[in-house]
Write a structure and sequence with these properties.
It is globular and about 65 Å long. The chain is an alpha+beta fold and about 475 residues long. The chain has a domain of about 180 residues. It binds adenosine monophosphate and magnesium ion. Magnesium ion binds next to loops.
Length: about 475
């Protein structure tokens, strides 16, 4: 056990904490547990500026949890959740502590959380730590998602701890500084519903409404807003070939941000049944299941609001709007991706079916269409591509700006894995390059063209791991 260092640091993070002002049953006050030898791996100055803090406010001792900065009120939040369909009445931040909140120049309140910060009351069997690989995966993929225009938690920094964490083998330990509009989840509500704590549910619903959807009215308005935010979010994922991989209710944020980059992956070859997560044996969270699962999770949220609303019908009516909201957004996204003159659901559906049959690379297909490049070589049967293109030519809008919506670069699995394994050996060059390339995903970068291409047979990554 290492004693906390009493280093005097002139850090002036403009904390403005609100969650800690809720009653204690929402969290457990918990300081981060200090680590042996913190070293900075990555810091995100663009995000720092966006949220109104500076790099000077975040010396490595703060990022590692060895020094608790002035104004922080560290806590581990309580939440429950359905994991792969089974309810767990107590999960909670088992390896994360919320340092506090800051309100940015944009007026948005954000959480600053250290993930991998040591054991808490909610750690159950876990060690409260994170390994470097998963920390860098979350850093790269969450920042890529942001650059791709998807609502997401962000990565402010990553540090190594100088300690090893025991997984299948001992791995270098790390801490991620995560920034989110909040860490409230569907599971945050389920925690109090499971305890039949109506007062807590009222407090939480009002807190979440005021923080995220101030224009919404009451708990029903909150549900409506979350349904809308999630329908839009999942449609965005589908438009990028993103598979979350672990859509448990504790991993669905009330804010509508993507959260928890454990076993997530972007598809190379398009197929609706694609699953990467090594722990998703039934394919519950397969690519095409994501909208259904989102609705299932939202139904769990609705359930927790029954005691507040008093009747079920209006909550059901709110849930019933999900399918339309999602379908409208999905169609809008694919209409833009294909540069169609007007929405054409049948054409979109047929195109995706054809892509699955032909084993087409999802990202390259749309990128090449946007750049007027050939697509035949992406198909098993080139004549199918020619026939498809002839049909497409008849219904497309030649002046559509397809480059603005079809990325050139996505975080391809094989590149991520290569960057993480190099980093585990102390080599961060590939991590840096990937991060730079993915910061501008909608522009061709001829010097980095190798990051556009799908994996070769040998490079293909078949499974992703949670790393927990
Ligand atoms: P996750 O897969 O990261 O969403 O985690 C699911 C649950 O397990 C959450 O309650 C986490 O806090 C907890 N957990 C995951 N990994 C660890 C760990 N290494 N130590 C303690 N708790 C953990
Ligand atoms: Mg989680």
């Amino acid at each position: 056990m290492i004693a906390p260092k009493f280093v005097r640091l002139q850090v002036t993070i403009p904390f403005d904490n609100s969650f800690v002002n809720l009653p204690p049953r929402f969290y457990d006050r918990q300081n981060p547990v200090p680590v042996a030898a913190p070293a900075l791996v990555a810091f995100n100055p663009a995000l720092a500026a966006e949220i109104g803090v500076s790099a000077d406010d975040f010396p490595v001792e703060v990022l590692a949890g060895n020094v608790v900065p002035e104004g922080a009120a560290p806590l581990a939040a309580a939440y429950a959740g359905h994991q792969f369909g089974g309810f767990v009445p107590q999960l909670g931040d088992g390896r994360a502590v919320l340092l506090g909140e800051v309100v940015g120049p944009d007026g948005i309140r954000r959480d600053i959380q250290l993930k991998g910060a040591g054991r808490t009351r909610f750690s159950r069997g876990g060690d409260g730590r994170a390994a470097l690989g998963p920390v860098l995966r979350e850093y790269l993929v969450s920042e890529a998602m942001h650059a791709l225009g998807v609502p997401t938690t962000r990565a402010l920094a990553a540090v190594t701890t100088g300690e090893r964490v025991q997984r299948d083998t001992p791995l270098p330990g790390a801490v991620l500084t995560r920034v989110a509009q909040s860490h409230l989840r569907v599971g945050s509500f389920q925690f109090h519903y499971a305890r039949q704590d109506k007062a807590a549910l009222e407090t939480l619903a009002e807190y979440a409404r005021a923080r995220h959807y101030p224009e919404a009215q009451g708990p029903l308005g909150l549900l409506d807003a979350v349904v809308r935010a999630q329908a839009r979010l999942i449609a965005r994922w589908m438009g990028l070939g993103f598979i979350h991989g672990v859509m448990n209710t504790d991993n669905m944020a009330i804010s509508g941000e993507t959260i928890d980059y454990g076993p997530c992956a972007f598809m190379d070859t398009y197929h609706p049944e694609t699953v990467f997560s090594s722990i998703d044996r039934q394919g519950r969270y397969a690519f095409a299941n994501q909208p259904k699962i989102a609705l299932w999770n939202l139904a769990q949220l609705a359930q927790t609001l029954v005691p507040l609303v008093g009747e079920v019908a209006p909550l059901e009516a709110s849930l019933a709007r999900f399918d339309d909201l999602y379908a409208t957004e999905f169609t809008r996204i694919f209409t833009a991706k294909l540069g169609l003159a007007k929405p054409d659901v049948d054409f979109i559906t047929d195109t995706l079916k054809m892509m699955a049959n032909e084993g087409v690379d999802f990202t390259l297909f749309f990128k090449r269409l946007a750049y007027g490049q050939e697509i035949e070589s992406l198909f098993e049967t080139p004549s199918t591509a020619q026939d498809w293109r002839a049909n497409w030519d008849r219904i497309r809008l030649p002046e559509a700006d397809m480059k603005a919506v079809n990325p050139v670069f996505i975080p391809r699995n094989h590149r991520i894995e290569a960057a993480l394994s190099a980093a585990e050996h102390g080599e961060f060059a590939l991590f840096e390059t990937l991060h730079t390339v993915l910061a501008n995903p909608f522009s061709e970068q001829p010097e980095h063209a190798e990051f556009e291409t799908p994996p070769t047979e040998d490079e293909r990554v078949l499974a992703t791991f949670c790393g927990t």
